[in-house]
Amino acid sequence: MRGIFYMASTKLIVLKSKEIIYTVIFLGLVALFIIILTIMFKKPATVSETASSNTASETTEPSYNPGTYDSTITLGESTLSVMVTVDDHSIQDVALSNLDESVTTMYPLLSSSLEAINTDLQYVSSIDDLTVSGDTKYTSMLLINAIKEALAKAVVQ
């Protein structure tokens, strides 16, 4: 009786050192790309998240003399007035006066930044709690500083 024998063949895989190095570099670049994408598309904290975290901690609200107070911003050769309307404890509205077409054309983010600040003020208890987006960071900071200057006039002594 004959037995059936299977011959196992051994396969050898030959890797060249260049292939190993290229593979390691490629995997490193893929990992770096994933890290960069994660950092770029990380979602910033929203105003509602900031407001909810602020309600958990007890803060003292400033006391204002109700009315409308102003401060000025100089943009190029134009001077704008930032009008801040307050009640006893909060900011009700922020508006720009002396805003003409040339200023709006030269500084297109001014109006949208002001609208965003007015919207965000409904959800936060203080001007210091506002978060600004990266797109309008400098314009928003300019407006926030002008609002703070006007609020300094409104604070009860």
What can you see in these coordinates?
The structure is a single chain. The longest helix has 24 residues. The chain has five helices and three strands. It has 157 residues and is an alpha+beta fold. Helix 4 packs across helix 5. About 3% of the residues have low confidence. It has one domain. Strand 2 and strand 3 form a beta hairpin.
Sketch the major β-sheet.
3 strands, antiparallel
Task: Please estimate the helix content.
Answer: 40-55%
Radius of gyration using CA atoms only: 30 Å
**What is the chain-wise order of helices and strands?**
HHEEEHHH
Report the average pLDDT across residues: 80
- Which strand-content bin applies to the residues? 15-25%
- Structural class call reads alpha+beta
- The main sheet orders its strands as 1-2-3
**How many helical elements?**
5
Separation of the first and last Cα atoms: 113 Å
Whole-number count of domains: 1
What is the overall shape?
A: elongated
As residue ranges, the low-confidence spans are: 54-58
What is the β-strand count? 3
Protein name: FMN-binding protein
Keywords: Membrane, Transmembrane, Transmembrane helix
Transmembrane segments: 20-41
